[in-house]
Design brief:
This protein is of the alpha+beta class. Helix content is 39%, strand content 28%. It has helices at 15-22, 51-60, 87-95, 118-130, 153-164, 176-183, 187-213; strands at 3-9, 27-36, 39-47, 64-72, 76-83, 103-106, 109-115, 134-141. It starts with a strand and ends in an 8-residue tail after the last helix.
Length: 221
């Protein structure tokens, strides 16, 4: 199954596009999202030096119908939002592709990694173009697995650091913030990188375990 990585330029008329450009230190991390008719609801983490200032601009944006703050700290806010202009969700829905969460938006750009048929990826490109969303294809792998490396260099580095520093120990000896500092990444980037690495490892492990546990057919003579 092909895997593609796309970088999308989010239009100004959507709140993530305008807000992330207006606040160049902000990272908007979409944790979950879904469409309701032509509206979209989702869960987002807003990380910035002053997240409340960013949040005020989100509330005031023309495309935002409602924002509920679930949690807010000094440098991050977790919010639930509703928008009547969910362009990214509509493009994914109309192409028949589920969005792989989480993904980040910085300075008006989002990066998507998709595992789907080539036809589905092509259809997504058509939908993005129809909605006025510019994009570039960073890579397109025809085959996932096999001789391909399971993890990227960054993913291997953060997994190795997590193990060495006791992130997976019980009790945990290292927090996500400490792990991010150790590998020189922002906390949100470290979290996403680690999540994607864990996802790949777990999926490969589960596939191997299920194949091994699958009962063998009995051939009658």
């Amino acid at each position: 199954m092909p895997e593609a990585k796309l970088t999308l330029t989010i239009p100004e008329r959507t709140w993530p596009g305008e807000i992330s450009r207006a606040h160049d230190d902000a990272t908007i991390r979409i944790l979950a999202a879904m469409t309701e008719t032509d509206a979209g609801v989702g869960l987002a983490e807003i990380a910035a030096a002053d997240p409340r200032r960013v949040l005020a601009d989100v509330r005031a944006h023309d495309s935002v119908d409602d924002v509920e703050v679930l949690q807010c700290g000094d440098d991050e806010c977790l919010v639930q939002f509703r928008t009547h202009l969910p362009l990214l969700l509509l493009a994914a829905r109309d192409s028949g592709l589920p969005l792989e969460m989480p993904f980040e938006i910085r300075d008006g750009n989002a990066t998507w990694t998709l595992t789907a048929s080539q036809d589905a990826i092509s259809e997504l490109g058509d939908q993005l173009s129809a909605l006025g969303i510019a994009y570039t294809v960073d890579y397109l792998q025809q085959e996932v697995g096999g001789s391909e490396e399971l993890l990227t260099d960054r993913q291997r580095a953060i997994v190795r650091a997590a193990i060495e520093r006791g992130y997976y120990d019980t009790p945990r000896e290292c927090s996500l913030t400490e792990l991010a500092d150790a590998v020189g990444l922002a906390k949100s980037t470290a979290s996403e990188t680690l999540h994607r690495a864990e996802e790949r490892v777990m999926k490969q492990f589960a596939a191997a375990a299920l194949e091994e546990a699958e009962p063998r057919a009995v051939v009658e003579r």
